[in-house]
């Protein structure tokens, strides 16, 4: 009887597979579909300052109305596209609840290969003190 108390106490808190000790019965999470072209475009315009190397610090959060105007779409359409991308990031492991204008989930998508950063061109600036 004493050995059963953890299962009774923890049952409402953890998945049943973990309480029973049979962790092999949990199904793997299905991989989300790739980003649509519209979602990728919305992410690239909203977080352009973070996708380039070196990243430029933002003065503040992106103004979604301005991004929507640049894309020639409505504000609600832009929010819908970003929300779809955020949903995919949650399926990939983004656990914190963030706003669609927060760049936190962008890194999850880039790390998983759903959004590739733009190609960078490495340039070398001549330094006179190194040339000697």
Question: Tally of extended strands?
Answer: 0
Terminus-to-terminus distance: 81 Å
Strand content: under 5%
Q: Helix share of residues? A: 40-55%
What's the average pLDDT? 77
Uncertain ranges: none
Q: What coarse outline follows from CA principal-axis ratios?
A: globular
> Which structural class do the helices and strands define?
mainly alpha
Instruction: State the order of secondary-structure elements, H for helix, E for strand.
Output: HHHHHHHH
Characterize the largest beta sheet: strand count, sense, and whether it forms a barrel: none
Annotation field: number of helices: 8
Radius of gyration: 22 Å
Which helices and strands appear, and what pairs or packs with what?
Layout: H1 5-10, H2 16-20, H3 37-46, H4 48-51, H5 64-71, H6 75-92, H7 104-111, H8 128-131
Helix pairs in contact: 3-6, 5-6, 6-7
Can you offer a commentary on this structure?
It contains eight helices and no strands. It has 132 residues and is mostly helical. The protein has a domain at 41-111. Helix 3 (37-46) crosses helix 6 (75-92), helix 5 crosses helix 6 (75-92) and helix 6 (75-92) crosses helix 7. The chain starts with a helix and ends with a helix.
Features of the shown structure:
132 residues, mainly alpha, globular, 8 helices
Quick take:
It contains 8 helices and no strands.
